[in-house]
Amino acid sequence: MIIIAAALALLASGTATAQQKSDPKGGISAEMFKEIKKGYQGTASDKAIRNALNTTGINVLAANAENAAMIDTHFSDQVKTKGRTDQKSSGRCWLFSGLNVLRSKMIDKYDLGNFTFSQNYVFFFDQLEKANLFLQGVIDTKDKGFDDREVDWLFSHPIGDGGQFTGVSNLIMKYGVVPSEVMPETYCSNNTSQMRTQLSTKLREFGLKLRDAKPKECQQMKTAMLQEIYRILAICLGEPPAEFEWTMRNSKDEAVSTKTYTPKSFYDEYIGTDLNNSYVMLMNDPSREYGKVYEIQYDRHVYDGQNWVYLNLPVERIKEIAIASIKDNTAMYFSCDVGKFSDRQKGTLDLRNYDYGSLFGTTFPMDKKQRVMTHASGSSHAMTLIAVDIKDGKPVKWMVENSWGANSGYKGNMIMTDEWFNEYMFRLVAEKKYVPADILAMLSQKPILLPAWDPMFLPEE
Q: pTM, whole model, 2 decimals?
């Protein structure tokens, strides 16, 4: 009893001391700060790391010397592709990824050389449609206060150059495509920030006018506003062609045919797939229930188009679909958290690339679900999934075609380990013919609507 009493007294004393050291209002008291300072002992190791970080980046010092060798670049299964694209200083990865999926199909079917679609052409209509999406959203929410979350979100995001696959499908099915030489890139398409700033400012101004206007005046006002947006886009990006002449050349640079097309007839002749109804959008988000369909409010490019609607699946089921597609020489739209454990020089995505724990003397134990829930990870960049390496019946690594130019990464590609795929892969878009029947059946559910401001669904850039 004496021992127990003494222990309780000691515990009470320690608790009292801890309470004295902490500020009851939640701040850092002087006593508490003395305890906090003990976290840095100033050992020789601490000082060496501090000295090194004074002139060197964290990733340089955290680079794992035991993983310095280049990963094996052999793949058991790979989609046939040619050339690499470059989105430059723009957030159009979603567009490059989607067009690269279609490009690989056309190159293979018609034995073309390094053919590319015009990203600038589709981007023009992306910006025009996003402007309309914002303006119509303002009209639809006129009766809500300016402090309403939806209204606030609209004015916080009037326009941007990021996006996702429904932008690719909706825009192409509405406006078609053209070869890159018909509407080439411009400075503003490759460097979008200044144009985006001007468009955002103009749209916010227009939004205020629409909120103050009489309802019967809004549609006529919106049309006049879009005329002004169209003019700005035409000055920055050029005006999209209504008709053009194009000569097809094969891989030997021999002329095959010369014809006149519209953007829609060009798409119908050389691709022809109904993009709105031929693909399924899959997600691996362990923070939400698997086997459910989700829809993201305002996560679309075209007002009268489709929101991002996806089926949430365990990563192993997504891999089954990806492998089936690659084995049939079909590339896929793929997105991930590309900045995590990324060695851009080698072009590898590998959990062993960096050892942050050893550098700082700590651990980073959160799993994928916890990272998503705490905003520590989410889909940030879209690429084109083109290869898998299977050993003993299981994938050991994957490769994506990137849009950062032919000289970036590994020959313009990024190679990821299967472990990295598990942790940082989020979205995959695949053709329905590669999706098992039980998964297709799940898509018949009514989607669960999620708000536009959910951090997991920021545009991919």
A: 0.92
